[in-house]
TrEMBL record:
InterPro entries: Gfo/Idh/MocA-like_OxRdtase_N, GFO_IDH_MocA-like_dom, NAD(P)-bd_dom_sf. Keywords: Oxidoreductase. It holds the Pfam family GFO_IDH_MocA. Residues 3-115 form the Gfo/Idh/MocA-like oxidoreductase N-terminal domain. Residues 132-251 form the GFO/IDH/MocA-like oxidoreductase domain. This is Oxidoreductase. It comes from the Bacteria. One of its GO terms (cellular component) is cytoplasm. GO terms for molecular function: nucleotide binding; oxidoreductase activity. PANTHER family: BINDING ROSSMANN FOLD OXIDOREDUCTASE, PUTATIVE (AFU_ORTHOLOGUE AFUA_2G10240)-RELATED, NAD(P)-BINDING ROSSMANN-FOLD SUPERFAMILY PROTEIN-RELATED. GO terms for biological process: NADPH regeneration. Belongs to the Gfo/Idh/MocA family.
Amino acid sequence: MQKLAILGSGFISEFYASSILGQRSKDEIIIAASRSEESTKKFAEKFNIPEYSTDLNKAINHPDVSIVVIGLPNYLHLETVLACAKAGKGVICTKPLGRNAAEALQMLRAVEKAGIFHGYMEDLVYTPKTLKAIENVKQGSLGRILWAKSRETHPGPHSDWFWDKEKAGGGAILDLACHCIEIGRSFIGKEQKPIEVMCWAATQVKPIDAEDHAIGLVKYANGAIGQFEVSWTFRGGLDIRDEVMGTEGTIWLNHFLRTGFDMFTAPGQSGYVAEKAESDSGWIFPVADENQDLGYNHMFNDMFTAYENKTSPTETFYDGYVVNAIMDAAYLSVKSKKWEAIEIEDWRGEEPDSAASHSLASYNDQYYLLKEEVMPNGGKTLLLKDKKTGEIIRK
Ligand SMILES: NC(=O)c1ccc[n+]([C@@H]2O[C@H](COP(=O)([O-])OP(=O)(O)OC[C@H]3O[C@@H](n4cnc5c(N)ncnc54)[C@H](O)[C@@H]3O)[C@@H](O)[C@H]2O)c1
């Protein structure tokens, strides 16, 4: 059982608190802290949190608190993580870990030096669908992973600070590609070194200094490609989808909008339908259980179980740091319009093996297999390539 402090009483903290305290949980939030007294009090009352404060340090240093849950704007992650390290408290921080890799590395070094528990709250790798898909990929059901594409697009964030490039650290890339990149790493294999990034980004609609739309490719040492598609200009709600392609199989995941729950309502459903929903009447796309479907429940279970077992959770500050390093390279690529190297000062996975090669699909000793297909006339076509001469034949 954990006794928690939660920092922030805004959008994400609502989800965090309802997930932590939901389903007859044994964990307790004993203090909430954020900037405005009125909203912190309201938040504490809603979730039956016995203490609240506008002083973040009071919550961090509360003698009974074991883990601090950070749900604050991006520009406050570094200073609050450093305060947790100083207080010797376990800390779990929302995404993105830092506004850049330098901030993330500072946080990683601080928690490791202090020897405290740390977790990176990347909920989207904990959705039930993603957990199952990752398990299948690890069992080899898809063969070698060649490409992992992840998309998160919506009509734009809900709070002022997101739109301020200095406070947020960036635009749609920093806010949303952090999710997509970690999903890609989880399918491709976190031990695989991300090598370089090619990224396009633009400010197409919103009057902001940062990008409101971007598409990027992340190349890994084993040749696999991670792809992110992010936007703050997408109309229609929150679209979260992943596609994984391997040599032996494919996975398509639809997490939001089109999850299999479509509803038509002429009078409309007043109030909240689902995150970033743009309509509450006509055809709407409710989400059965957002805490479950967005991964919050499994994420907190992993975090607190790891803390109790004195192990590391699936997502640590190291993962947050690697993701930030990839996004730094993406921003460089947007400017240079070239592939940019990813600088990871402290790489802990496999070293790239320049001699590594993948075997091509073989048919027999003489031929490679190009393609086998049943044709409209019912006959079978077989396309083969001679291993010695290179001649391509049809059988
Ligand atoms: N799926 C996800 O993982 C997800 C989704 C949304 C947001 N987030 C992340 O959560 C963090 C917060 O985002 P949000 O959407 O909850 O923002 P928000 O604006 O809704 O809430 C921010 C909270 O921080 C408090 N706050 C702001 N400045 C403060 C200060 N100086 N001192 C103390 N408290 C202060 C506010 O009072 C508010 O309670 C961001 O890092 C964001 O990227 C994660």
